[in-house]
Design goal:
It is a single chain. By secondary structure, the chain is an alpha/beta fold. The protein contains 8 helices and 8 strands. The strands form 2 sheets. A 6-stranded mixed sheet has the order 1-3-2-6-4-5, covered by helices on one side. It has a two-stranded antiparallel sheet with strand order 7-8. Strand 7 and strand 8 form a beta hairpin. Helix 5 crosses helix 8. The longest helix is centred in the last third of the chain and has 17 residues. The N and C termini lie far apart (53 Å).
Length: 261
């Protein structure tokens, strides 16, 4: 029988435990992934018991409390606190989400916090998104035109055409969907993944864009688009409630319609 083991330096070990202050009665336990590449040590899981009577209601509030009051070395990304920037994407109790939009009370028991899966970890909860952003740049996420701009107005579109962008422009590029996708785990060097393909479709259906043919040419590839197997993890995990799987299906439909004339 085959046996598979992780490299010794990647095996998680038990870390430190930080108890709640004496007298605290409303206590929640948080287990947080920790790894410092400069230390040479294995990644570990540190446990923090927090007094909820002096903590904000969201998971991000708990992480900020840990950093501000218990362990200032904890590293993570965050910015807007409103689910708009996508910075605080991480895995919370096994599901990718935005820490600023998840209420602590929506979870029972211990809350386990890890970086986004199947990406290189920079430090602690910070995943390396360099490749993800390079893929985003590859789809040319801007309007491309061949005709001259109107002399005295903007490039306008009808209300109906504008509505086609709903559920697409809302993406905050948090990478929750792509890093939840098994097809992206195994083929991320060539498969663009749900987030980038949703963004690609956003420009395909923009009535002001005049490079639809070129964009479809770029996507008509066995790996860039067709590694999607409709697993639906992307739609299930999107913290904005978007449907990347539908955008991918609609892109495939556009390619079929072009072939059929």
């Amino acid at each position: 029988m085959a046996e598979f083991t992780l490299p010794k330096n990647s095996v998680l070990i038990e870390g430190k435990t930080f108890k709640a202050p004496a007298g605290a009665t409303n206590i929640r336990r948080f287990e947080v992934y920790r790894w410092d590449p400069e230390s040479g040590e294995n990644p570990r899981i540190d446990a923090f018991e927090l007094d909820m009577d002096s903590c904000g209601p969201m998971v991000l509030d708990a992480i900020l409390k840990i950093k501000n009051e218990i362990d200032s070395s904890l590293t993570f990304r965050r910015s807007c606190r409103e689910g708009v920037c996508g910075s605080c994407a991480m895995t919370i109790n096994g599901k990718n989400s935005l820490a600023c939009t998840k209420a602590i009370d929506s979870y029972s028991g211990t809350i386990k916090i890890y970086p986004l899966p199947h990406l290189q970890v920079v430090k602690d909860l910070v995943a390396d998104l360099t490749h993800f952003y390079a893929q985003y740049a590859s789809i040319k996420p801007w309007i491309e035109t061949q005709t001259p701009a109107p002399a005295d107005s903007e490039r306008l579109q009808s209300k109906e055409d504008r509505e086609k962008l709903d559920g697409l422009y809302d993406c905050v590029l948090c990478a929750c969907c792509s890093t939840s996708c098994p097809s992206y785990w195994w083929n991320s060097e060539r498969y663009l993944g749900p987030a980038i393909l949703l963004q690609a479709y956003r420009w395909l259906v923009d009535s002001r864009d005049e490079s639809t043919g070129e964009r479809l040419d770029e996507l008509e590839d066995p790996f860039k688009l067709y590694r999607c197997h409709t697993i639906m993890n992307c739609t299930d995990t999107c913290p904005k409630g978007l449907n990347p799987a539908k955008a991918i299906a609609e892109t495939k439909k556009l390619l079929v319609q072009r072939k059929l004339g």
